[in-house]
Design goal:
This protein has 14 helices and 11 strands. The chain is α/β, with parallel strands linked by helices. Strands 3-2-1-4-6-5 form a 6-stranded mixed beta sheet, sandwiched between helices. Strands 9-8-7-10-11 form a 5-stranded mixed beta sheet, sandwiched between helices. The termini are close together.
Length: 365
C-alpha cells in the first residue's frame, strides 16, 4: 500500500507521520502507520534535523511505498499560494522569507533540503500556512501605510496557521453536518504561536496574524499587537545601552531577538511554559498578570470577529493551549457572556493529516 510521509519541522524538533493511502474511486488517506517526534535537536550537539531524518530513514528501510513527502512551511509570501512541488530553484526562492518567520521557516527548509538529498526521486511537496488566507478581502489585507509598500514591496497581511484553520473548518463542517459554504466560525489556534480567524461562509475574512507571525494575540515568546512607537523606543534603548547597536545589523538582530524570543508570556512571566503559568497564576502576581493579558487580548479578538460576522455557528479552540487544559477556555467564556448561547468546540488540530491530503494531488500510480 502506498504511503505519504509528512514532516513538521520546528526549531528544535522534527515531527513526522506516515499515512497509508487507499485507492478506490479516488485517492484518500486511510490511517497513520507510524509517527514520531525527534526533540531537542541541536546542530552543535550532533542532533540536527538532517541527523533525525537519516535516523528515520534507517528505521524505515524500504522506501518503495512512499509516494510523496509533505512539508509544513510557515511563510510562502505572495509567491507561494498553493501546495508546491519543491526543487532546488524554488527552494532558493523560499529562503528569502526566512527573515520574516525566523522561528519557523529556516527549520522548515532544513527538513526539505535533507529530503531532496535522501528522497530525490520522490515528490517533496511544501504546504504553506499562508495559503488559506490568500483570498482575504483587501480591507483586511492592506496596511494603512504608504501604498507603494504594498505595490512594490509586497507588505500585506499574510496570516499564518492556515493549515490548522482550514482543518478546523472542514472538521466542524462534518461535525455539525453543515456545508462549509454556509459556515460562520471563529477559530482559535492557541499554542506556542497563537491566532484567531474569522470565517464567513467557509472563507477566512480576517486573521489576527499579519505580515509576520508576530501580530495579534499574546504568544509564548512574541508580543502580538504592539504600538510601532514602542519598537522605536526599544531600539533607542538598545543603542544607548550598547554603542555597537548603532550598526544596523546589530540593531536588527537585537530587535528581532526581543520581539521573537523574549516577549509575550516569557517577557511578562519570565518563562514561556504556559502550563507552568497555569500552575502558579493564583500565587504569583506576575503569572496572574501574564495570564490576564493573554486572556484579555484573546477576548478582544473574539469580540471583534463576533461583531464582524454577526452570526456565529461555533467558537473553536485548538492547539496545545486551546485544546489542552480548560482554564483558558473557561476564563474566556466566563467573561464573554454572549458566548453562553454559542457552541464551544474543542478540536485537536491535525496539520499533518491536512498536509497529507494535499500531497495526494501530486501522486501518480
Amino acid at each position: 500500500m502506498k504511503q505519504v510521509l509528512v514532516f513538521n519541522s520546528g526549531s528544535t524538533s522534527l515531527k513526522y507521520k506516515i499515512f497509508s493511502i487507499g485507492k478506490d474511486n479516488a485517492l484518500k488517506v486511510v490511517k497513520v502507520v507510524k509517527e514520531g517526534n525527534f526533540k531537542g535537536l541541536r546542530e552543535d550537539r550532533g542532533t540536527s534535523h538532517d541527523a533525525a531524518i537519516r535516523s528515520l530513514l534507517r528505521s524505515l528501510g524500504n522506501l518503495t511505498d512512499i509516494a510523496a513527502i509533505g512539508h509544513r512551511v510557515v511563510h510562502g509570501g505572495n509567491e507561494f499560494v498553493a501546495p508546491t512541488k519543491i526543487d532546488q530553484l524554488n527552494l532558493r526562492l523560499l529562503e528569502k522569507y526566512n527573515r520574516l518567520a525566523p522561528l519557523h521557516n529556516p527549520y522548515n527548509l532544513m527538513g526539505i533540503k535533507s529530503c531532496l538529498v535522501y528522497f530525490s526521486n520522490i515528490p517533496n511537496v511544501a504546504v504553506f500556512d499562508t495559503a488559506f488566507f490568500k483570498t482575504l478581502p483587501l480591507k483586511a489585507k492592506i496596511y494603512p501605510i504608504p501604498f507603494e509598500y504594498y505595490q512594490k514591496f509586497g507588505i500585506e497581511r499574510f496570516g499564518f496557521h492556515g493549515i490548522s484553520h482550514q482543518y478546523l473548518v472542514d472538521t466542524v463542517a462534518a461535525k455539525l453536518k453543515k456545508p462549509v459554504a454556509k459556515l460562520n466560525l471563529i477559530t482559535c489556534h492557541l499554542g506556542g504561536g497563537c491566532s484567531v480567524a474569522a470565517i464567513k461562509n467557509g472563507q477566512p475574512i480576517d486573521i489576527s496574524l499579519g505580515y509576520t507571525p508576530m501580530e495579534g494575540l499574546v504568544m509564548t515568546t512574541r508580543p502580538g499587537d504592539l504600538d510601532p512607537g514602542v519598537i522605536l523606543e526599544i531600539q533607542e534603548i538598545l543603542i544607548k545601552n550598547n554603542p555597537k547597536n548603532k550598526e544596523s545589523e546589530h540593531l536588527l538582530f537585537e530587535t528581532n531577538n526581543i520581539l521573537n524570543k523574549e516577549s509575550g508570556i516569557k517577557g511578562l512571566f519570565g518563562s514561556d511554559h504556559y502550563l507552568k503559568l497555569l500552575k502558579v497564576k493564583d500565587k504569583s502576581p506576575r503569572a496572574k498578570l501574564a495570564f490576564d493579558i493573554f486572556i484579555y487580548r484573546l477576548e478582544k479578538y473574539i469580540s471583534a470577529y463576533w461583531g464582524i460576522l454577526n452570526k456565529v455557528d461555533a467558537i473553536v479552540f485548538s492547539g496545545g493551549i486551546g485544546s489542552g487544559k480548560p482554564a483558558t477556555r473557561r476564563a474566556v467564556v466566563k467573561d464573554l457572556k454572549f458566548l453562553n448561547k454559542t457552541k464551544i468546540l474543542v478540536i485537536k488540530t491535525d496539520e499533518e493529516l491536512a498536509i497529507a491530503k494535499e500531497c495526494l494531488k501530486f501522486i501518480k500510480f
